[in-house]
Design goal:
Layout lengths: L6 H18 L7 E8 L8 H13 L4 E6 L5 E6 L5 H12 L3 E8 L4 H5 L6 E2 L1 H4 L1 E8 L1 H22 L5 E6 L2 E6 L2 H14 L3 E8 L2 E8 L1 H25 L6 E5 L3 E7 L4 H9 L3 E6 L10 E4 L10 E4 L4 E2 L3 E8 L5 E7 L1 H11 L6 E20 L2 E21 L7 E4 L5 H13 L6 E9 L1 H55 L2 E2 L1 H30 L4 H33 L3 H32 L10
Parallel strand pairs: 5-23
Antiparallel strand pairs: 1-3, 1-4, 2-3, 6-12, 6-22, 7-8, 8-10, 9-10, 11-12, 13-16, 13-19, 14-15, 17-18, 18-21, 19-20
Helix pairs in contact: 1-12, 2-3, 6-8, 8-11, 12-13, 12-15, 13-14, 13-15, 14-15
Length: about 625
Amino acid sequence: MLNRYPLWKYLLIVFVLVLGLIYAMPNLYPDDPAIQISGSSSTQVIDERDLSRIETALEEAGIATKGAEVGPNGRSGLVRLVNRGEQLPAQDVVKQALGDQYVVAQNLAPTTPDWLTNIGAGPMKLGLDLSGGVHFLLEVDMDKAIDNRVNVYESEVRSLLRGERIRYRSLPSQGNTLRFGFSDSDQLEAAQRLINRQYTQFQATTGTREDQQVLLLTLTDAEMSEIREYSVQQNLTTVRNRVNELGVAEPLVQRQGANRIVVELPGVQDTAEAKRILGKTANLEFRLAAEPNAPRATTETFEFRGGEGRPPAEIERSIILTGDQVTDAQSNFDENGQPQVNIRLDGHGGELMTRATQNNIGRGMAVLFIEQRQISREVNQEVDGVMQRVEVPAFVEEKSIISLATIQSTLGNQFRITGLDSPGEASELALLLRAGGLAAPMYFVEERTIGPSLGAENISKGVSATQVGFILVLIFMLVLYKAFGFFAGIALSFNLVLLLALMSLLGATLTLPGIAGIVLTLGMAVDANVLIFSRIKEEIASGMSPQRAVHEGYDKAFSAIVDGSLTTLLVGIILFAMGSGPIKGFAVTLSLGIVTSMFSAIMVTRAMVNLTLGGRDIKKLWL
């Protein structure tokens, strides 16, 4: 019999539509504006007293709250606000109440009911242009990048000279120039020949200093440019990896200019944790412990990290390798139940470690934890022609020993770090190293919170555009195709629900261009119905019976609809693969909309037509 579906097809359509309604439902629950608080270190705990102090400060400032809660691991807290427009002043109030030992950031707290969350349903993530968010501008310290590379080269050259038994004296480096002193010209010439064979990065010159022959190794301009480029690219990769480790969806991480990196974290992401992790320029240095009676010029003294009661230790200035040669790091526990980090090095790092340890069995090797900490400092600065005391950011480099162990055997590209204070510290250190070491420190030169008011206006305009587009399309279909146009309108509503559900289920981020993609999808969705209904009209005009005309209309228009949809889907995939930012947002909604349109325009409308006309003796169609 014509125009009849088997029962299983009706059940399938109902199942898909119900599933779509359920997974689109979380979008009806808007997020609460919130203030997120976390400690400046991984071991710092946020408790109820801290939240009570925050709520009291906000109440005194006249800022209403909905409540506060401690995070599941006790390392963060969340205070929900009533008005989104009060997030920025609330952030300032909380900062003043807690001081510099806490990281305070704006966030959005979900309000989705637990029963929806338990089945994996959640609202769509909104892009920065819709929900607001945080914009960071980080600057790579190029001078420090040069210094770091000079230190590594200095250690390598020292090892090379010692291996060839060339006697030398280390002299302090000057900028991008290494200096080595020799007692006679024969030793200098031998060192220069050896270094010229091994390195092309230096321009070697000679000079004298007091009673010494001095070899000057200056980095070439090409090497300096390569170091700068490598530093930015390595830090860019590291930032992306750290954001990915944090689970931030659809972030924007891109280079800006010669030495800056832009990071945008939209929507509901844990911006406090992200700021703390991104702000850390933690790295490692592996050095040998100083030998007894070693010259003071070749050693440095460092405290142990968190090791009250342990005396400081002297270690060599020469660096074996740094954390940017770590390829993998995983935290777990040793045989005594103490936290540790298992480390894997790249090929060059493994070679350096083997070379340093094979001749130093029985000596100690220290692991230095290096961190750049941002502080505020008051300075005199001219403002509008008047000298004033203003606060400017300053940075302090802190180095401390996290491990000092005796080398028991030659180490290769795999070993472990022990002596960590807590599992949280081990986990964070592993995250930072796994994400990649920074080639140079980075500083927050700009932090801009994009307020929710602009996002709310964009959402309002986007919703209005969608509603207007939907109504105009519906009027057009009703006027042109009457009852069949009504069926198309119902299918169009379900298409919108399925699109929202699919985007929510896949975790896609909705942006302003994405809303444009949704509006375009509504117009494209009825294209299929226009093809079908126009074909039905043609078949009726040729003298075909209504039942046969409906059947032939859907059957013959199907191939044209599939061809058109596949070509548009192909364009959407190309846009997503080759585009970035707003283009990706448009491509996502366009591609998903084509998939849902195929289902709603063909199967849903056909099911409604079959239920209405199937099995009946119809003389005339309202078309």
